[in-house]
Design a protein that fits this description.
about 375 residues, 3-stranded antiparallel sheet, mainly alpha, DNA polymerase, domain 1, hpI Integrase, Chain A
Amino acid sequence: MNTYSIILRKDRTDTSGVAPLVFISTNKKQVKREIGFRVNPGDWNPDTCLLKPSPQNSLINLKLAQIKSKADSLILKLALEGKELDPIEFYNHVFEDTNREIGSDFFEFFEFYLKIKDYPTKHWESYITLRDQLKAFKPNATFEQMDYTFAVSFVSFLKTKYGNSPNTQQKKVELLRCIFKEAVKHKKVKENPFLEVKIKTTPTDRMALTIQEVEKLEQLYDSGVLTKNQQSVLQSFLLSCFTGLRYSDLLQFSVFHIKRNVIKLKQIKTGGVVSIPLIDRARKYLPTVRFEMLSNQKTNTNLKKIITEHTNITGNVTCHVGRHTFATIGLNSGIPLEVVSELLGHSSIKVTKRYAKMLDKFKELEMQKWGNVGQKPSQIVAA
């Protein structure tokens, strides 16, 4: 049976304080498409699927009423005929008079691309940042102007204007490749100018704590010397060490995500669902209901203060180090790479393999213990 709804994506509120309206078409599966209106969340009434009456909102409300009327009429027609439509077909029927041909303007196609791709919030935000930077580089860019020279010049602009590292530049080039791949399908361009752009990236050193360092933090958590904020920050960090949850997932996590001793959670970054068995050691760091999280920046500031003032742990310890620690200690403990990859919610085992270098460092430390076997204490050199 075909059904529909119109929702406000508050999680996609931009810097100007407005969020997009999304039409959801459902029949066994869902299709989500942005309608094309961005509105003030405070004006949205989810019960009526309309905005608060005002001169500024009147035209949008008129359009929304037309969309709802057309969708309701279509559902009635299908019911009388005993028919059903695929969600995409249903959406196309409702919006057939508004889906005009996309022209050669690149940014017009960019918005179209974001409508047809229901990306997770974090991924969507990356595209919005990229769009704004492209507009700063070439405000009225058309497909005809966007060749290899344009692509190389834009990469140089990212470096000089925004100070983007080669790794960040590469990530943005990959996003643009995705957009142009779709543009080729729609015959907007014949080839993808960003395919030939090569950027020499540098490997990033990923830090992880040893199990001994995690134990030190557990002892610190029990000591009672931390402030309320610090205690809360360390609590969520230790849960990350034992579950691999990202900061964005800790934000939404609650005890209601635990089913039969397994955390089941839809990841904010990827949109994929992870299933993480909850070990007894981790239960101690569960919130009463959910964490009262500080911002990512304040969380990291508090975490660094905890580390520097109360431990001898070295390195740049951030909230994300908890996830690295979970992966690396897991691998070092003998958990197969495929299982760690599944627990982390990685789309490919190749992504998980980046922890191999960190694992080598753990092995090196362990081998130093072997080298010290049989030596007198005075002969053992501290690692």
